[in-house]
């Protein structure tokens, strides 16, 4: 593990304002044995040019482009197919890692003898201003807890490919990460986070996650398509999901002093 390769999966789409900072946050990692696989989903801005400039000066960055706009799920799965690492990590093109992120997570995996972990994370707005908010998670995350709420921030998850293999990523446009973590928890039963903030999540005004109604639709689809529940059962399960979102999850959102 001391010198294991980490493959970083990064989908991009019209990320010209953010992608450079995202790449630099990877280059600034104290753990340096990584490859960053960026798959662009047919951006119409200058995202590709910026990535190509970084790639010209850092051979750990690999860049691919989809033939047609297909969504983040297809972009992530395409990047995963190119991955050579012993560990698979995820970072979207507008989010950031703190410098010790990989080092601390790899050490945590080793110390706890587990094949998967994640961490807490901070939140910023679209302009990069702190929202003074840290998102935490249960210290012993069970499958049942994850079933009702995606406590794992996509930008924080990392898993051992030699243990799980490459876990297929859904082609749906939202909630692919939740389905992936559920697949992991089905096998592990419980997961432990590194109990500190190691990443920074950017909340964008026009993102899918900014729309609560759209988010509910995507969550409902997970219960229908991934779990295979009937329409009626999924409606009842959504009551538990909403209870978790409104009553339980807020306990894990802390104000940064």
Observed structural traits:
257 residues
Write the layout of secondary structure elements.
Blueprint (H helix, E strand, L loop, with lengths): L5 E7 L6 H9 L6 E7 L6 H11 L3 E5 L6 H11 L4 E4 L5 E2 L3 H12 L3 E10 L4 E6 L5 E2 H6 L9 E3 H4 L11 H13 L1 E2 L1 E11 L8 H15 L4 H18 L4 E3 L2
Helix pairs in contact: 8-9
Account of the 3D structure:
There is one protein chain. The chain has 257 residues and is of the alpha/beta class. The chain is 39% helix and 24% strand. Strands 1, 2, 3, 4, 5, 6, 7, 9, 11 and 12 form a ten-stranded mixed beta sheet that branches. A two-stranded antiparallel ribbon has the order 8-10. 37% of the residues are buried. The model has no long low-confidence stretch (mean pLDDT 93).
- Main beta sheet, described? 10 strands, mixed
**What's the rounded overall pLDDT mean?**
93
What percent strand? Answer: 15-25%
Fraction of residues in helices?
A: 25-40%
The number of helical elements comes to 9
Poorly predicted ranges: none
What's the β-strand tally?
Answer: 12
Distance between the termini: 35 Å
Q: Which class of secondary structure composition applies to the elements?
A: alpha/beta
Describe the global form.
globular
The rounded Rg comes to 17 Å
Question: Secondary-structure element order, as H and E?
Answer: EHEHEHEEHEEEHEHHEEHHE
């Amino acid at each position: 593990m001391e010198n294991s390769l980490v493959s970083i999966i990064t989908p991009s789409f019209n990320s010209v304002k953010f992608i450079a900072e995202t790449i630099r946050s990877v280059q600034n990692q104290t753990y340096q044995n990584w490859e960053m696989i960026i798959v662009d989903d047919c951006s119409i801005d200058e995202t590709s040019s910026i990535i190509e400039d970084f790639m010209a000066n850092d051979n750990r960055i690999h860049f691919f482009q989809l033939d047609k706009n297909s969504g983040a799920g297809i972009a992530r799965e395409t990047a995963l197919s190119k991955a050579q690492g012993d560990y698979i990590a995820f970072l979207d093109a507008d989010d950031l890692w703190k410098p010790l992120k990989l080092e601390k997570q790899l050490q945590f995996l080793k110390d706890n003898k587990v094949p998967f972990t994640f961490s807490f994370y901070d939140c910023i707005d679209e302009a990069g201003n702190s929202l003074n908010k840290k998102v935490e998670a249960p210290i012993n995350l069970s499958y049942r807890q994850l079933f009702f709420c995606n406590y794992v921030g996509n930008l924080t998850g990392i898993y051992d490919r030699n243990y799980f293999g490459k876990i297929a990523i859904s082609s749906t446009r939202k909630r692919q990460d939740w389905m992936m973590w559920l697949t992991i928890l089905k096998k592990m039963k419980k997961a432990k986070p590194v109990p500190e903030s190691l990443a920074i999540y950017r909340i964008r005004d026009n993102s899918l996650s900014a729309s609560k109604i759209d988010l509910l639709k995507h969550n409902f689809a997970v219960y229908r398509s991934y779990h295979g529940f009937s329409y009626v059962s999924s409606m009842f399960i959504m009551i538990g999901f909403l209870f978790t979102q409104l009553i339980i999850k807020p306990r894990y959102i802390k104000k940064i002093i």
